[in-house]
Amino acid sequence: MPHKPYVVESRATTDVLPHERPAFWANAVVSLQATMGLSLPHPRAFHASYSRIGTDSYQLVAWKSAEARYARDSRHVRADPDEDYRLVFPIAGWLAVRQHDDVTYLRPGFGGVFSYQKPLDIWHRDDTQMMVLTIPRKEIENRINLEACQGATLDVSKGLGRVAQDLAAGVLRERSVLSRDQFEAASERLVELVCLLLVGDDRPNVSAALSEVETMARRYIRQHVDDPQLTGSTVAQALGWSLRQVQLALRNAGTSPRELIMEERLKAARERLRNPAYRNLTIGELAAQLGFSTAGNFSTAFRRRFGVRPRDLRQ
Questions:
Q1: pTM for this structure?
Q2: What value does the mean pLDDT take over residues 24-34?
């Protein structure tokens, strides 16, 4: 079977008329990635560009775009099956990916690995820049357990992760002079580095790393205990990790995001009940301040945790 063409190109929305730019980018996304819907909050002012180098085995794309949202639903998955993995390196801005009820937030310094086999939603802010390597499923399947891949977040700010990101950037920078064989050889090396990262070969002290995540998550929750929207996902987003990372770190410590948020809220309530500065608040008002839906729910949780009723601390 003959090779598909070796493609090296750069395109931008400035190549077409302003009213054609949303359609141009929608078609580019389908061509470069997979079938999915595109939603633009500011279609008249939309701008984007990409550069790519690719063969029938690998494709590496660098893109920059104004704010956009993408949705690949079950209809898209059925109509356009895609088993390949995508390795994402953020260069500027951030990218959020929702899949399997998990939301992964990527910012510079953190890469991610995703699959289009299941529905997902993607969104990013204005002037976000990414590099995306398309990796055939078999290239990872032959090296490691595929379960280690989906939704995995990689530290690419140092060590092997930084080497992998620099290799991807170097390939794109030199794309005009690389041959097909050179590009595929570099892509294979990049996949090998990523697989080492996925199985943990670049993380000799995993327990220490998880402990650091746990400490920072606890500190953030304690500092934002009054936020009624506080969840594991919002903690992960604020700290630049995936929800899965936060869940893993806290599970390693014997708790979960939901349990830790409840624990910190109850501790804060106990402190405020004892503090004269909060005497002007009723117990119901104090409970609402800390995110409890009703005073009854708060009282039940408080008594279960501390063995006394909230009002007992005010007598």
A1: 0.63
A2: 95
